[in-house]
Design brief:
The protein is of the alpha/beta class and about 800 residues long. The chain has 20 helices and 37 strands. The protein has a 6-stranded antiparallel sheet with strand order 17-30-31-37-33-34, with helices on one face. Strands 19-18-23-25-28-27 form a 6-stranded mixed sheet, with helices on both faces. A 5-stranded parallel sheet has the order 1-2-3-12-13. The longest helix has about 35 residues, at about 285-320. About 55% of the residues are buried.
Length: about 800
């Protein structure tokens, strides 16, 4: 059930519009130093519309969006007083005309409020999400069952021979055709039987509102015609030019039924009767019960993802625009049955790119909270695993963090996103009502009341440069970490955060790879796994009790071909595949790891091909990772630290772009300490240091030995640079030591007084707080102005 991302005109334009002007397209350095409109399209805020703003307010605030260095914006109802009515399209038209004048691109938010899919509370019951129910009737051989059936809500009827409190899968009989004209009549064969009648009922929805049923085609058709098509009817001539696509926000998946679920089970080659019985009742064989329940969960999520989000994506792509958005990811909600049908990968893979949210204080400088800290890896992995063009992956960032959000913290969040592969940033937010609003600040510019406003362009220029350098080309990543997906719902399981953090701190990048991608799309080539342009050298099997038989079978094949296979925490012992028993899975586990006993950094097995397997603790340390991969398996990290204290906060992302190796190196230590490192990178070419904050390109002394380059690099806490390996040497100024760079030009910042005639309403919470004694810096050549918009 794989999803692919066909390249459309809009996609090519959005991916930094890299074809743009021919001279700029060939000049990576020029576009880095002086980003133009094309490069800025991957930075752009949410722009709130309420229905009571004047044309002057909307146009004036959009001018500030452009002045701040953004290249796009998302027109969002927050909520709009006339969403999908005349007032909504009037305001969108105002924004569209001003965007054309300013050179901005526009996205359209697809809901009146949130979650997406409520349609402003107007979803008809017939198109709302649905729960499946079961009524069971015991019957003995020779007896007749007569039952009234609710034809309007009928799903299926199944009979099975009884085994204790369960039924025997191989005896199941489809009685659906017996339920005619509202009455089910059936005479049981010899023995004890249970007749199970499955019906559906409307979901109660969230806050008492129905959500659209994403697993039923008729509901999705209604949704597209009601929400998406009218926008195209109004503005279709701008699709693929100014209008880039639609943005959905925190949808939910209440219910466990839809008309596409049973066909999906059959498409997967499964038995729909066993799956239904396992989901709502019980099969007598434990292995069969687990595998059939897994099958239903898998089919439900796939049906919902393909029908609704695949439907939206395909509708958008047919009109040269994109479908993007995010779900709720924190607290492992990316596996929540009511928030993403149990597996967010099966939702996001059908959008135009991966995406996440970053709100409140979910990310805290200096804190690795496994509640949210690795969600950026989730978003970028979706794009890498399923082939989103140019590896684009988005984040809605800084939502509801508060007006007291400071720029050093913003940079820390931004660096963590980029080094984890998130490269399209949608900051929250520009609000034409600001500062006279209390709805989840921060508001950048804030109606002229934000004294730090000139710094916003520094931030926008910074993330724009990083997005430009860290999209396109090829991601270079040594580790494929299999994503547990629906294994989480049928047995003991450990989610991937701790392993991912240990790898990242040890400077080994990884992608979370779904089972289906590993099984169907990855090619084994000796000791490597190929996936389009990716080439992985390490496979990590998730710490799960139950796993698809084919997944573990291919893991063994990789080991025997010369690959490195790592398990941790627990080894698989049960099968999620109907017809492939748990005994077979245990045999495969023994073939890979032998009898590993306690976790260890010693190899469990070494295959004749040289392939090696390891079994690590459930929460591995940086030392565990280094001992296994670098010391024993001989696999170098993305960037080797020969000398220097990383504090486990030095992180790196490696890409090859325009014939150059590019390493983004981020010192995410949240302190004022300057750290000296001796580093080694493996890459051809001549090393340069590109500073995305200062817009400077400098050199550092370095020595080459074969394919490896060794050099010294000094980074202050929170400082990040790009290491760019050029095909030819250049005469560049040396990178200055930190004691000579200084702080740049200092400026005095004062709060703007309330403009004459404005109501005496206090600014949004936290405006201007925390500035006492601060030394804020902006571009010396571009000081900007702080003035209220009209």
């Amino acid at each position: 059930m794989r999803a692919t991302y066909p390249l459309t005109i809009a996609m090519a334009a959005l991916a930094l519009a890299q074809l743009g002007d021919a001279a700029r397209a060939d000049n990576l350095e020029e576009r880095f130093l002086s980003p133009g409109p094309e490069e800025r399209q991957l930075t752009g805020p949410l722009f709130w519309l309420h229905g009571d703003e004047s044309r002057e307010q909307l146009e004036g605030t959009l001018r500030k969006v452009a002045e701040g260095g953004n290249g796009c914006f998302t027109a969002e109802s927050r909520p709009h007083s006339d969403w999908l009515g005349f007032g909504w399209y009037r305001d969108l038209q105002i924004c569209l005309a001003e965007a054309r004048r300013l050179g901005l691109k526009m996205w359209i938010f697809d809901e009146k409020w949130w979650p997406s899919g409520e349609v402003g509370g107007e979803v008809p019951p017939a198109y709302g999400s649905k729960w499946i129910d079961m009524a069971a009737f015991p019957v003995s051989g020779g007896e007749e069952v007569t039952s009234i059936v609710d034809e309007a809500h009928f799903v299926a009827a199944v009979a099975g021979r009884v085994s204790g409190d369960a039924v025997v899968g191989e005896t199941l009989i489809d009685l659906s055709d017996e339920a005619a004209d509202g009455l089910l009549e059936w005479t049981a064969p010899e023995g004890e039987w249970t007749v199970m009648v499955f019906t559906w009922r409307p979901s109660e929805g969230r806050r008492g509102r129905l959500l659209v049923d994403g697993a039923s085609q008729d509901a999705v058709d209604w949704y597209i015609e009601t929400v998406y098509q009218p926008h195209y009817d109004h503005f279709g001539h701008e699709y693929g030019s100014i209008i880039q696509g639609y943005f959905y926000d925190e949808p939910e998946t209440w219910g466990d039924w839809g008309t596409e679920v049973l066909p999906m089970i059959e498409e997967m080659g499964g038995d729909w009767m066993r799956a239904l019985v396992a989901w709502k009742h019980r099969l007598g064989d434990d292995d069969e019960q687990l595998a059939a329940k897994y099958l239903y969960q898998d089919a439900l999520a796939e049906a919902w993802g393909r029908t609704l989000y695949g439907g939206l994506r395909d509708w958008c792509h047919d009109r040269d625009v994109l479908s993007i958005g995010h779900w709720l990811e924190h607290g492992r909600e990316y596996l929540h049955p009511r928030l993403c049908a149990g597996n967010v990968f099966q939702m996001l893979k059908y959008s135009s790119m991966g995406g996440i949210d970053a709100v409140f204080t979910q990310f805290k400088p200096g804190v690795k909270d496994d509640n949210t800290y690795q969600t950026p890896k989730l978003g970028s992995s979706v794009s890498h695993a399923y082939g989103a063009p140019d590896d684009l992956a988005m984040v809605e960032i800084f939502g509801a963090r508060g007006q007291d959000l400071g720029y050093p913290e913003m940079k820390w969040w931004t660096d963590h996103m980029h080094v984890s592969g998130i490269n399209f940033h949608i900051p929250h937010s520009f609000n034409p009502r600001a500062p006279y609003d209390t709805d989840c600040p921060p508001y950048f510019y804030n109606g002229g009341y934000e004294p730090r406003w000139p710094l916003y362009k520094v931030y926008a220029d910074y993330t724009t440069r990083l997005s430009h350098m860290l999209t396109g080309g090829r991601h270079v990543c040594p580790v494929a970490l299999l994503y547990l997906g629906n294994s989480y719902h049928v047995g003991e399981a450990t989610t991937p955060e701790d392993m991912t953090t240990a790898l990242q701190d040890a400077l080994y990048d990884c992608d979370w790879i779904p089972y289906e991608v590993f099984e169907d799309d990855m090619a084994i080539d000796g000791g490597s796994l190929g996936l389009r342009e990716e080439e992985y050298r390490v496979l990590i099997v998730p710490a799960v009790e139950a796993i698809p038989h084919a997944t573990l079978q291919k893991a063994r094949a990789f080991l025997e071909s010369g690959g490195v296979v790592i398990g941790y925490g627990r080894l698989p012992s049960r099968s999620t595949t109907l017809g492939e028993g748990s005994a077979d899975v245990r045999d495969l586990a023994r073939a890979i790891w032998g009898e590993p006993g306690e976790p260890s950094t010693q190899a469990c097995k070494t295959a004749d091909s040289g392939g090696r397997s390891y079994f690590l603790p459930e929460k591995p340390t940086v030392g565990d990772v280094q001992a296994v991969l670098a010391a024993d398996a001989g696999i170098r990290p993305t960037l080797e630290v020969l000398e220097g204290d990383t504090g486990d906060w030095l992180h790196v992302l490696h890409r090859r772009k325009d014939g150059r190796d590019v390493f983004f190196v981020s010192n995410n230590n949240w302190d004022h300490r300057v750290r000296d490192f001796t580093l080694r990178a493996v890459a051809p070419g001549h090393l340069e240091v590109w500073d995305p904050l200062r817009a400077e390109i400098t050199s550092v002394p370095h020595e080459r030995e074969g394919t490896a380059v060794t050099f010294d690099l000094t980074l202050a806490g929170g400082e990040s640079v790009l290491l760019v390996f050029q095909p030819r040497p250049r005469d560049l100024p040396a990178r200055l030591p930190h004691d000579l760079t200084g702080m740049g030009r200092r400026i005095a910042i004062e709060r703007v007084s309330v403009p004459a005639g404005e109501p005496a309403v206090p600014p949004a919470r936290g405006a201007g707080e925390g500035l006492s004694g601060a030394e804020w810096i902006w571009h010396a050549a571009d000081p900007g102005e702080v003035e209220p918009c009209e």
